[in-house]
Write a structure and sequence with these properties.
Blueprint lengths: L4 E5 L6 E3 L5 E5 L11 E7 L14 E2 L9 E3 L10 E9 L12 E5 L11 E3 L13 E9 L3 E11 L1 E6 L2 E2 L15 E8 L7 E10 L1 H4 L15 E10 L4 E5 L5 E4 L2 E5 L3 E5 L18 E2 L1 E3 L5 E4 L5 E7 L6 E2 L6 E18 L6 E7 L1 E2 L5 E2 L9 E5 L6 E3 L6 E9 L10 E8 L12 H17 E2 L1 E2 L12 H14 L3 H14 L27 H13 L3 H20 L34 H22 L3 H22 L15
Length: 666
């Protein structure tokens, strides 16, 4: 027998910053024998530093031999404190009662569990953009001295906006678009980094660059500043010395701010970077920040700070152009690069030229009839980056706080002969492990699956979106619930959707409705309507079905029950979206082709609404059974049946025809 492998906590491998006090621990069997299965398991856990020894009598938790085929267990030992590490291992028993060897050790570390653990103050720069105007990205820094060796150092950091952190001249972590997109009126995530290897005895420097991101940049077709007026930083570095003493360096009024090369940075519009304005070794010790300003400090916004849940967004791959670029038209200085794959991310530009020369990078998914890039489908999203050279040695530029959906790149303003090695596509998406594959003898079906997987990558950038290129990169709930089952077959999306289901609850109205986009950007109405709002039921149910995880049911149960009660309250004779009580009725059969000039189709909206009402009630009944709420289950099952009968009475004729007589209605 092989020992269990792929040990994870909350679906993550050796995670920093877990906020669950009773996290889920899981593992995988590695037994090549036919029919092999687990009959029992044992988990041991400790918080002491060093090897885990079962005979030393200091284990914090030992599950003992548990007779179960489950490959996941909820930690049931004494609660851990803030910033505490737990080390654990597991072994299993086979059908013959033989134990496996112990697994390799795994660990997790808790985050800052109490708001009082934070000493940091929100800080930022003085410049403020407007609904249609941007301001440069602020660079923030501080310096501090360490006078003794340390055994560990953790950086806890978040932003209202986006951030990149630097310590002693080095970028901290490989994540992008942190802290992620949440409803900033309710919650912001923070990340935890192990920076032990980046610190030195003596002077150290900690810095950050802030981008507008989803907080105060464009998130859709309307103006900027959906949540706030400028980006802000909250950072806390905790250094533990060899003797156990702690030094805390926090963001506060002693930090300094300057504005540098990033003149504009917007997720939808793009980034403008002037390399002549670079600030040198601004995040390194010894830097003279003599002309930097004092930061502005801000009151705490009073929202929840949550440790990051789910996989981070990272650069996953690089793509080179498939051929040398074309100049279009000839001698115009406009070059078209073809990466050969529709992707989401940005490009790395390598070039040299005279100081002050500005080039423009346009991004598009398709070409027009003349062979030029086509951008009309982007609507107001410009997807355009600008770079101004500083001159001298060959220069390399990668945007910081923007992303684009594209296959083609247009380079303008370059006076030389462009070559394919000037451009590299950088693929960005949530770092999801692929768990399913499909191939067959039909090349068209194989290409379809290829497109589905790339579509999933491009639209799973921190949250599930409907598109990654135009001015509508939103978490449409209807799109998410339709695709979640396919997504779970392709990739491990348990942590990704568990976090987004929490976002759904954050966006729920006091009445119980879920909106049509999550995080909520104020798109009206507040009720997403049939099939969209039902994502609040369908998505947790699908994660349970695909991963056997009842924790998501327990966490979201009261929210789901509130939604079903809302549907019942707003229905008329159990007909949801009845036109007598709901003048809108939802998006209907969105973009159906059976209604010329009508993007909502001709299927009655109340038919769709009532069908989903019964469906959601039935799914909630199933979930109630799974967590032992049998009385609730019986009540929801009866409600589902009552709604089904109401559907039959209103929409099915004695001859068996369904009102509307459309493909969707049947």
């Amino acid at each position: 027998m092989h020992p269990p492998s792929n040990l994870r906590c909350e679906y993550l491998t050796n995670p920093l910053g877990i906020e669950a006090v009773r996290p889920r621990l899981s593992w995988e069997l590695r037994d090549p024998r036919r029919g092999a299965h687990q009959t029992a398991f044992q988990v041991q856990l400790d918080t002491a530093i060093g090897p885990l020894l079962e005979d030393r009598g200091t284990l914090r938790w030992d599950s003992g031999q548990c007779h179960s085929q489950e490959t996941a267990v909820v930690y049931d030992g004494p609660p851990l404190g803030s910033a505490q590490r737990a080390v654990w291992r597991v072994r299993t028993w086979d059908s013959a009662g033989q134990p496996s060897p112990w697994s390799e050790l795994a660990w997790w570390e808790t985050g800052l569990l109490d708001p009082g653990d934070w000493q940091a103050i929100w800080i930022g720069g003085p410049l403020v953009g407007g609904p249609q105007t941007t301001s440069p990205a602020p660079f923030l820094r501080t310096s501090f001295t360490l006078d003794q060796p340390h055994r560990s150092a953790r950086l806890y950091v978040t932003a209202l906006g986006l951030y990149e952190c630097y310590l002693n001249g080095q970028r901290v972590g490989d994540q992008v678009f942190c802290p992620g997109w949440t409803d900033y009126a309710t919650r912001v995530q923070y990340q935890v980094y192990d920076v032990s290897e980046l610190l030195e005895i003596g002077e150290n420097a900690l810095g950050a660059i802030l981008g507008d991101g989803w907080y105060c940049g464009h998130v859709e077709w309307r103006g900027r500043q959906r949540y706030g007026d400028r980006p802000k930083l909250l950072a806390q570095l905790i250094v533990t010395a060899d003797d156990g003493s702690r030094t805390v360096i926090s963001s506060g009024a002693d930090w300094r701010v300057a504005y540098g090369p990033i003149l504009e940075s917007d997720l939808l519009m793009g980034e403008s970077y002037d390399a002549r304005r670079e600030l040198g070794a601004w995040s390194s010790p010894g830097y003279a920040a003599t002309h930097w300003m004092h930061v502005e400090t801000f009151a705490d916004p009073g929202i929840v700070r949550s440790a990051m849940r789910g996989p981070a967004v990272r650069q996953i791959a690089e793509i080179k152009p498939i051929a040398e670029p074309r100049e279009l038209p000839a001698h115009s200085g406009r070059w078209i690069f073809d990466l050969g794959q529709n992707m989401v991310g940005r490009v790395r530009l390598k070039m040299s030229g005279v100081a002050g020369t500005s080039v423009t990078l346009n991004h598009a998914e398709v070409l027009d009839a003349s062979g030029d890039i086509y951008t009309a489908n982007l609507r107001t999203a410009k997807q355009t980056d600008h770079y101004t050279l500083k001159g001298g040695e060959p220069e390399t530029y990668e945007p910081h706080f923007t992303f684009h959906g594209f296959r083609y790149v247009g380079l303008c303003g370059y006076s030389g002969i462009a070559t394919r090695d000037m451009i590299t596509g950088l693929v960005l998406h949530s770092d999801l492990a692929q768990t399913g594959e499909f191939s067959c003898s039909n090349p068209l079906l194989n290409q379809l699956q290829h497109n589905i997987e790339w579509g999933q990558r491009g639209n799973f950038l921190d949250i599930p979106t409907d598109c990654p290129q135009r001015d509508e990169r939103l978490g449409w709930t209807g799109d998410a619930q339709v695709f979640i089952r396919t997504a779970a077959y392709n990739m491990d999306v348990a942590a990704f959707f568990s976090r987004w289901c929490r976002d759904l609850e954050d966006a729920q109205t006091d009445e119980g409705a879920y909106p049509c986009v999550v995080p909520n950007t104020g798109v009206v109405p507040s009720d997403g309507g049939p099939a969209w709002a039902d994502a609040g039921i369908i998505c947790p149910w699908t994660i349970w079905q695909c991963y056997g995880d009842t924790r998501i049911i327990e966490q979201r149960y009261s929210s789901m029950a509130k939604f079903v009660a809302y549907m019942r309250e707003k229905s008329l004779n159990l007909i949801r979206a009845h036109p007598d009580v709901d003048s809108w009725g939802g998006f209907g059969d969105w973009l159906a082709l059976d209604g010329p000039g009508n993007v909502e189709g001709v299927t009655p909206k109340e038919l769709i609404g009532t069908a989903f009402f019964s469906h959601s009630a039935r799914l909630l009944a199933d979930m109630a059974v799974a967590i032992g709420k049998t009385e609730d289950a019986a009540r929801y099952r009866m409600l589902a049946e009552d709604v089904r009968h109401a559907f039959l009475r209103r929409f099915v004729t004695p001859e068996g025809q369904i009102v509307g007589n459309t493909q969707t209605s049947y």
